[in-house]
Amino acid sequence: MTAIDFDQIQRPGSLSAATVTPCRESLLQDALTQKAIAACGVSMIYQTGTQAFHALKNVSLTINAGDVQLLMGPSGSGKTTLLSILAGILTPTEGRVCLLGEDITRMSSRQLAEFRLTNLGFVFQGFNLFPALTALENVEVALHLKGIKRQAARRQAMELLEQVDLGNKANNLPRDLSGGQKQRVAIARALAGNPKLIMADEPTAALDSQNGHAVIQLLRDLAKEGGRTVLIVTHDPRIVEVADRVIHLEDGILQS
Amino acid sequence: MASIARKNLFEDIPRFLVAQAGIMFAVSLVTIQLGILKGFSRSTAIVVDHTTADLWVTSQEMVYFELTSALPADYLTQAEKVSGVDRAEVLLLRSGRWRDANGKLAPVRIFGFNPDGQLFAGWKILQGKIEDLKQPYTVMLDQDSRRSLGLQQLRDQGSIGFLPATVVGFLDDVQSNASSPFLFASLETANAYGTAELSSSITCTRQSNGELNCTNRFQNRPLGQKIGEIQPPARLNLGDPITYILIRAKPGENLDLLKQRLRDALPGTEAYTRKEMAALTRNYWEERTGVGFILGLGATVGFIVGMVVVGQILYSSVADHIREFGTLKAMGASNWVIYRVIIEQALWMSILGYVPSILLCVGLGHWTQAAKGVMILIEPTTAAGVLVLTVVMCVGSALFAVQKVTRVDPAIVFKA
Ligand SMILES: Nc1ncnc2c1ncn2[C@@H]1O[C@H](COP(=O)(O)OP(=O)(O)O)[C@@H](O)[C@H]1O
Ligand SMILES: [Mg+2]
């Protein structure tokens, strides 16, 4: 995490000056082009009925390419919200997000989907594997989505499973795999198509500590091998040791 | 991506089977209704189809093949003189009451034709020979009409009015499902049957006081004929009304022009080609009666039931897999990728529902034909039509399920 001095930057906004750190285009541009992930003045307000909930308050951050970055914070602090915004899955109420030098907050939803497909891999707390597909097929589907066809997809999927040490479980259905194995399949799937960014939301939460640690170690090693940038959301303190950097979120506010 | 659709489908076998049963029910309902409509419609003019006549001449008043009024018999000789006519034959259509061996009555339609003729010919004969009809008071009929006339085999007998009738042959595929049983007989026999009801006579005597005393007597034999004494049928004479004149045109004759010449030569008549006559009759039964509508309604209900069943199943399947579809969207899949999965699932369901249903209906059709004389006609065009309907039905309801996915928030993927 590199701190950018956003303080002197002026930006007209609908929110009050107290809650918004203004952010100027030119400065942003400079900072963003060299960063894998950058967010500037991101706020998120959830509107449920008449209630407005301020889940993120003026979050600005940058993440260096090739880093394994941890995002920590207590439950309900807004970690998943922030991750969703940084991944282009959720549109922030306010603020800008740049990934790999491109401003994703200006993209259409179609462009965003396209961008996620080429540049992002996901690992989820609940694994989100297709229960009817084998481990191999789960990875293949991701490759198919990225335009890799039949034979090539099958071969690459097998290689990816071997990288996560599951070559011998290729034909197992998710229900026949342990939690740790499932998450390794998910990691293989996230690596499919060689994306530059990996985003993981609580990847160890459903695993025991031993498996959790192994999974994180694997994720780190594979990311480092490929020079990928990894953002891991967690509240598991034992993961801290594998991270290059750690940032903390509390009540929607980034702690420095 | 192919495997997701198929595997999602087979993932839950009991649910899959319930779905397929529902689809099969719907497809069978549609097929049976359409097949009965087709079979029914075909049967109403099957007699016309079988004949080899180029043209049918009848009264202008004809409503359909079985409902027309009479022509004078001398129109036959006039028709023969019209240029372009190669051959003309008389066809009689009479109604009668059939009394079987046990005295049970049934209405019948009696066709009278020349057994040596060439135009009212082309029957599928299962038993007997057409020439046998030359014997007086003999008839042939569709094998499927046997039961309603209390008949079983050749030489079985019944009567029409005061005349006997002996079965000398069975035909296949001539009976209209919309009509009373058809009997086929020689011109003479048919003509005799047409007038073989009770005859009546009035005898009056003047009494001494000058009043007339009249007695009206009915008897079930022709006047002047003793009980038990049966004369052979009389030849058709010029005074007898006839129903149709069947025409064969000379080779290469323009039928439209010939029709015009026949109309001119025979006042009060209309001439129809065989196809026109058949189409007119089928149209009558399909449209002027409610049959087409009712069977069409049944088919529509089947279609809707199928749509609802498939929609329901696909919708719940999509709901079950919503997180995976969300995952695909999060990964960057376009909505189309997901639509393809769901539509492919619908296509699988339609094919796997269609094939057994059609086989089932074909089997059922064999049974109804054999047991009830009701044809479920599944022509290739009907089968193809039902396939298209099935696909439309399944894909249509898939579109209903798709909207659930379109609205899915990819953010749900992060929910534990
Ligand atoms: N879709 C939503 N609508 C309303 N409130 C939400 C929604 N998603 C999250 N929140 C709220 O925002 C806050 C932050 O949620 P989240 O980002 O999931 O936190 P974390 O991942 O740190 O546990 C929580 O209080 C949660 O209740
Ligand atoms: Mg969370």
Number of separate strands of chain B: 14
- State the share of residues found in helices of chain A, binned by percent: 25-40%
Distance from N terminus to C terminus of chain A (CA atoms, Å) equals 10 Å
The amount of beta strand of chain B, in percent, is 15-25%
Question: Can you walk me through this structure?
Answer:
The complex is a heterodimer of chains A (256) and B (416). Chain A is of the alpha/beta class and 256 residues long. Helix content of chain A is 33%, strand content 25%. Chain A has seven helices and ten strands. Chain A has helices at 25-33, 79-86, 109-119, 135-145, 150-163, 179-191, 209-226, and strands spanning 35-48, 51-64, 68-72, 94-99, 102-103, 120-123, 197-201, 229-234, 245-250, 253-255. In chain A, the strands form two sheets. A six-stranded mixed sheet of chain A has the order 6-7-8-3-9-10. Chain A has a four-stranded antiparallel sheet with strand order 2-1-4-5, with helices on both faces. In chain A, a hairpin with a 2-residue loop joins strand 1 and strand 2 (51-64). In chain A, helix 5 crosses helix 6. Chain A starts with 24 loop residues before the first helix and ends with a strand. The relative contact order of chain A is 0.17. The model of chain A is unreliable at 1-22 (pLDDT under 50). By secondary structure, chain B is an alpha+beta fold. Chain B has eleven helices and 14 strands. Chain B has helices at residues 2-11, 13-44, 46-50, 75-81, 187-194, 255-265, 274-288, 291-320, 322-331, 335-372, 380-406, and strands at residues 55-59, 71-72, 85-99, 105-113, 124-127, 138-142, 157-160, 163-172, 182-186, 199-206, 212-219, 241-242, 244-249, 269-273. In chain B, helix 1 (2-11) crosses helix 10 and helix 2 (13-44) packs antiparallel against helix 8 (291-320). Chain A binds chain B through residues 80, 83-84, 87, 89-90, 110, 113-118, 120, 122, 124-126, 128, 130-133, 137, 141-142, 144-145, 201-202, 205-206, and chain B through 1, 3-4, 7-8, 10-11, 321, 323-324, 326-334, 337, 410-411, 413-416. Residues 46, 48, 53, 55, 73, 75-81 of chain A line the site of adenosine-5'-diphosphate.
